Input
Amino acid sequence: MPQKLSALRYIRNNKRRTAVLIVSLCLCFVLTMLTQFLLSTTEESFRSLLLGNGKKMQFIDLAGSSYGLDVDNLSYEELVPLYQEKQDTLIDNLNTYEGVKAVYDAQILYECLNPVIGQFYFELPLVEKEEIPIFLEHFGAEIIQGRLPEHPGEIVLDTATMANRGYGIGSYADEQNMGELFKIVGILDCDYYFGCGIPSDEYTCESMITVLSDGIDDMTVLLENEGITYREKYDSIVDYKRTTEILEKEVTDVIAVSTQFIFIGIIILLSIALFIVYTTYLRDRHNEWCLYCSIGYSRKTIYLSILRELLFTFAAAIFIGSIMVAVSEIVLYYIMIQPNGLKCNFLHTGALWEIFCSYALLCGILQIPVRYALYRIRTIDAMDDDLY
Output
């Protein structure tokens, strides 16, 4: 007699029973991957905003005391011209550094990015009409609809920000808080979340030193060369180094913790449900295995057959789940992510590795009821004994 039991023959003849296990594992796979995919829209959108913009454009706002001014003994009228003189000198000196394309004293308008979870405000520089093409060239942006700003209070925005905020040409930026102050007159084709415009005559925004550069990650190095020590409590700097820290602390780490809690919860619930279902499933096959044992099949042969059935179940769940995840991600991208101007990550290698590890753990857990069932196998004369 052949000492091998066909796992596929049993699976073909018991499709419904096998399908229950496959569907359970498949849902775990799909739920985990889609959760990671949706959370990635927040991380990838913020990554593009923080790291991309931080590389191309930096902002510096220094307190008067950082320039060496005696702010305690100077009146406001005395302080303002002295502060402006110091700032103009710094701007001129920054223009001399390698990697710096241009430096401006620009007013800053803040715009908001709203992914699936959270929101983040980013800077839009407001400069003179003649300086706007310099910003567009630096960011590789081109006007694709409307026109460039020509009058005070006019701005342009990239397509992603326009979509995310639900703007159109003629809309006003942050109208709910700012009112009808900054009118959108053009849409940019740009790889970054970016916009710029001309200051309004009716409202003066906060001014900051705006640096267009390539390859300068830490602006404090340049300031130290100018004899200025950056003090976190008094000064404000937005550059690649600080945006990287913000991304890691406020976005990546937070999402990683949330994802782990969700993943652990899914695995715990699946493990309990699968253990109960599979134990019942094994109980129903007790008489079958007793018969196999009676006609000469060894417990090892029966065990290997069960193991092949399990491996097929897990493999089928991964295969079907992968197709479902791919289709779902594409559908979600075109109906929810792209129309809202967001970024995403389609392939999550970390999540895949966690799922494979969890499946290995589940397969190990299921060995407990399997080994117990094999231990209870009796020959044909004991098949009628209800040992369960």
About this structure: The chain is about 55% helix and 15% strand. Strands lie at 57-61, 100-113, 120-126, 142-146, 154-158, 183-189, 195-197, 207-213, 236-238.
